[in-house]
C-alpha cells in the first residue's frame, strides 16, 4: 500500500500543474499563476524515475491543454456539424499532442538535472523554449497560448519581447518556476531530521540568483521602455473598424445575403467620419468580391461616397492549370475611388479547417472538420499596402504603409515580423472568431496580438466579425476592445512607426540560442553519464 502513496501524490501534484496552466490565460486571466504553475510538477520530478517523469509531464500537459483548447469542441460540433462525441475525442487528441511537449520537458529536465547536478535546474528554461519553438513550427505549428502569453496584461514584464519575442518572456517565467522549486525542495530537505553523519546540502544559489537577475533586468528594461514612449508620435492615422456580428450559421446563406451586406454598409457609414482607413473582418462579404458585380458595385459605391479607403476580407477564386478551382483567403484594399489597390492572400492556413494536409496521399479519406465554401491554397508574399490620401487632398510624400495578417496567422511571430521588415508602419489583423462561439478562444486570440505589437513596436488594428475588435499600441496597451457578439462601429487613432526592433530584424535568434544551448547541455549530459 505504501508503494502507491508516492504515485498518488505525484499524480495529484502533476494534475495541479495541469489545472493551474489554463487559469493563467483568458478568460480566467490569472496571469500571476504562471509564475508558480510548474512548481508542483517540479516537486514530483525531484523523486520520479525518468519514465515516470515523462508520464507525469504528459499528464500535466494533457490536463492543461484540455483546459486551454476546449473551444475546439464548439468550432467542430456547433459549426462544423461533427458529432459531439467525435468533437470531444478530437479535442482530447489535440490536447494529448500538445501535452507531449510538457512530457518531453519533464523527461529532459529530470535527465539534465541528474546528469549535470552542478548546473542545478538552470538548463530547464532553455529546454522549455526549445520545445515551444518546435511547437511553433512542427507539423505546420500550433503555438497557441505559449506560457509567455499569460503576461499580456503585465506590460512591464513583456517589453523584452522586442528583443527575444514571446520566447523571452516564457524563459523568465519558467526560470522563476524552477528557482522556486529548487528553493522549496531545499527547505523541505532541511526540515527533515538528518541522520547522524548526514551532510547538510548547501543552498542551490545558482538558479535562484539567475531568476532574480533575469526578473530584475526584465522589469528595469520594461519600465524604461514604457517611460520612454513619446506622447506625440511623428505620424498617426484614424482607423474605423466594423464588427458586423454575423452569425456563422448565416454567413454563406443566400437568404441572409442582403441583410448581411446592409449591416456592413450601415456600420461603415458610422465609422467613416474622420477616418483615414476603414476595415472589415475576414471573409466579410457573403459573396466572392471579384465575381459578383452587382454586390461588388454596392461596396465600391459606398467607398466612393465616403471617400475613405477600405480593407475587406473576401475569398478569391482561382484555377489550377488543369481547370480545377481553388480559393485564396484574401484581403482586398480599395482606394477612395473604389478601385482595387492591392490584395493580400493568407499565407499560413488552418490545417483541417482551410485545407487537409497530405490529402492527395495519406489523408485522402478526410474532409475538413469545419464547413466552408471550399479548399484553400496559401498565399506566398507578405504584401505591404499603402494608405492613399483622402479624396480632394494632395497625396502624402511618404504614405503610411501597413501589413495585414488574417486570423490564425497572427499567432506566428516570425510571419508578422516580415511585414515590419517589409516597411509596414502599423499592422492590421482581420478575423472571424465566430467559429469559437462564446468561449475563451476570442479572448486568448486577442491577447496574443499584444505580443506581436510589442515584438515589432507596431500598433495593431483588429477587426473581428463577432469580436473582439480593437486597437493596441506599440507598447502593448489595449486602447480599445469591443464586447463579443455585438454590432459595433469603432474608431481609434494609431501611430505609424518606422524603426525596426531587434526582433523585427533578426527574428527568433533567442529561441535559436535556446535550441543550441539545449543541444549542448544534452551532449554534455551524455558525455558525463559515460564517464
Question: Could you characterize the architecture of this molecule?
Answer:
The chain is α/β, with parallel strands linked by helices and 531 residues long. The protein folds into 2 domains: 241 residues, no CATH class; 261 residues, 4-Layer Sandwich (Nitrilase/N-carbamoyl-D-aminoacid amidohydrolase), CATH 3.60.110. 45% of the residues lie in helices and 14% in strands. Helix 12 links the parallel strand 7 and strand 8. Helix 3 packs antiparallel against helix 5. The longest helix has 32 residues. It is globular, with a radius of gyration of 25 Å. 50% of the residues are buried. About 2% of the residues have low confidence.
Distance between the termini: 38 Å
> Which sequence of SSEs, written as H and E, runs from N to C?
HHHHHHHHHEHEHEEEEEHEHEEEEHH
CATH superfamily of the largest domain: Carbon-nitrogen hydrolase
Number of helices: 15
Strand content: 5-15%
Amino acid at each position: 500500500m505504501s508503494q502507491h502513496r508516492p504515485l498518488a501524490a505525484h499524480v495529484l501534484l502533476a494534475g495541479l500543474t495541469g489545472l493551474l496552466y489554463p487559469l493563467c490565460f483568458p478568460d480566467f486571466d490569472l496571469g500571476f499563476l504562471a509564475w508558480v504553475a510548474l512548481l508542483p510538477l517540479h516537486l514530483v520530478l525531484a523523486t520520479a524515475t525518468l519514465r515516470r517523469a515523462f508520464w507525469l509531464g504528459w499528464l500535466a500537459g494533457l490536463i492543461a491543454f484540455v483546459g486551454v483548447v476546449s473551444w475546439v469542441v464548439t468550432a467542430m460540433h456547433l459549426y462544423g456539424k461533427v458529432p459531439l462525441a467525435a468533437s470531444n475525442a478530437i479535442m482530447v487528441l489535440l490536447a494529448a499532442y500538445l501535452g507531449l511537449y510538457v512530457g518531453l520537458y519533464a523527461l529532459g529536465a529530470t535527465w539534465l538535472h541528474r546528469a549535470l547536478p552542478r548546473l542545478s535546474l538552470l538548463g530547464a528554461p532553455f529546454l522549455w523554449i526549445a520545445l515551444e519553438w518546435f511547437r511553433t513550427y512542427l507539423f505546420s505549428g500550433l503555438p497557441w497560448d505559449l506560457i509567455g502569453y499569460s503576461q499580456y496584461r503585465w506590460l512591464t514584464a513583456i517589453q523584452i519581447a522586442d528583443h527575444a519575442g514571446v520566447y523571452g518572456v516564457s524563459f523568465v517565467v519558467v526560470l522563476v518556476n524552477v528557482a522556486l522549486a529548487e528553493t522549496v525542495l531545499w527547505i523541505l530537505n532541511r526540515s527533515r531530521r538528518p541522520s547522524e553523519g548526514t551532510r547538510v546540502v548547501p543552498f542551490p544559489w545558482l538558479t535562484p540568483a539567475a531568476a532574480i537577475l533575469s526578473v530584475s533586468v526584465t522589469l528595469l528594461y520594461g519600465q524604461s521602455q514604457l517611460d520612454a514612449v513619446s506622447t506625440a508620435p511623428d505620424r498617426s492615422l484614424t482607423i474605423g473598424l466594423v464588427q458586423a456580428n454575423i452569425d456563422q450559421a448565416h454567413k454563406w446563406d443566400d437568404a441572409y445575403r442582403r441583410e448581411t451586406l446592409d449591416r456592413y454598409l450601415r456600420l461603415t457609414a458610422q465609422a467613416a467620419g474622420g477616418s483615414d482607413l476603414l476595415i472589415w473582418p475576414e471573409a466579410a462579404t457573403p459573396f466572392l468580391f471579384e465575381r459578383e458585380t452587382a454586390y461588388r458595385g454596392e461596396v465600391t459605391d459606398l467607398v466612393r461616397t465616403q471617400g475613405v479607403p477600405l480593407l475587406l476580407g473576401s475569398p478569391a477564386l482561382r484555377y489550377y492549370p488543369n481547370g480545377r478551382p481553388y480559393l485564396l483567403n484574401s484581403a482586398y484594399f480599395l482606394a477612395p475611388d473604389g478601385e482595387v489597390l492591392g490584395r493580400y492572400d493568407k499565407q499560413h492556413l488552418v490545417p483541417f479547417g482551410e485545407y487537409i494536409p497530405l490529402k492527395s496521399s495519406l489523408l485522402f479519406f478526410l474532409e475538413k472538420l469545419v464547413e466552408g465554401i471550399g479548399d484553400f491554397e496559401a498565399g506566398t508574399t507578405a504584401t505591404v499596402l499603402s494608405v492613399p490620401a483622402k479624396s480632394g487632398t494632395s497625396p502624402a510624400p511618404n504614405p503610411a504603409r501597413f501589413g495585414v495578417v488574417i486570423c490564425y496567422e497572427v499567432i506566428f511571430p516570425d510571419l508578422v515580423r516580415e511585414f515590419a521588415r517589409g516597411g509596414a508602419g502599423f499592422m492590421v489583423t482581420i478575423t472571424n472568431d465566430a467559429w469559437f462561439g462564446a468561449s475563451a478562444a476570442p479572448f486568448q486570440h486577442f491577447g496574443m496580438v499584444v505580443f506581436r505589437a510589442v515584438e515589432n513596436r507596431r500598433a495593431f488594428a483588429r477587426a473581428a466579425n463577432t469580436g473582439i475588435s480593437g486597437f493596441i499600441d506599440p507598447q502593448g496597451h489595449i486602447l480599445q476592445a469591443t464586447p463579443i457578439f455585438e454590432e459595433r462601429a469603432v474608431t481609434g487613432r494609431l501611430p505609424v512607426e518606422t524603426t525596426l526592433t531587434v526582433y523585427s530584424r533578426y527574428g527568433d535568434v533567442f529561441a535559436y540560442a535556446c535550441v543550441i544551448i539545449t543541444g549542448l547541455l544534452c551532449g554534455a549530459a551524455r558525455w558525463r553519464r559515460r564517464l
